[in-house]
Amino acid sequence: MEVLRCRMSQGGRVFGCPLPVVIGLPVDEARRRIRQCRPDVYIEVLSENQMRTMAYCSNRVRLIVNRFNKVVKNAHIG
């Protein structure tokens, strides 16, 4: 098992480890990998052309998937 390192801000607060690269993975596998690293985030699955809000949410990760349920864009917080 690989050791996950956490990023820290200047104030010493832990923000968790960086999100893994999940492009090309099935959505279930991508969710599992993100949950291993960041169990505190809410994962939202959206299709490529689906409309979405521009509101920033610090505990949300969006997975953009194609019609075959494969992740097509790298996951990011917001």
TrEMBL record:
<dbReference type="InterPro" id="IPR036354">
    <property type="entry name" value="Prot_inh_pot1_sf"/>
</dbReference>
<keyword id="KW-0646">Protease inhibitor</keyword>
<dbReference type="GO" id="GO:0009611">
    <property type="term" value="P:response to wounding"/>
</dbReference>
<keyword id="KW-0722">Serine protease inhibitor</keyword>
<dbReference type="InterPro" id="IPR000864">
    <property type="entry name" value="Prot_inh_pot1"/>
</dbReference>
<protein>
    <submittedName>
        <fullName>Uncharacterized protein</fullName>
    </submittedName>
</protein>
<dbReference type="GO" id="GO:0004867">
    <property type="term" value="F:serine-type endopeptidase inhibitor activity"/>
</dbReference>
<dbReference type="Pfam" id="PF00280">
    <property type="entry name" value="potato_inhibit"/>
</dbReference>
<comment type="similarity">
    <text>Belongs to the protease inhibitor I13 (potato type I serine protease inhibitor) family.</text>
</comment>
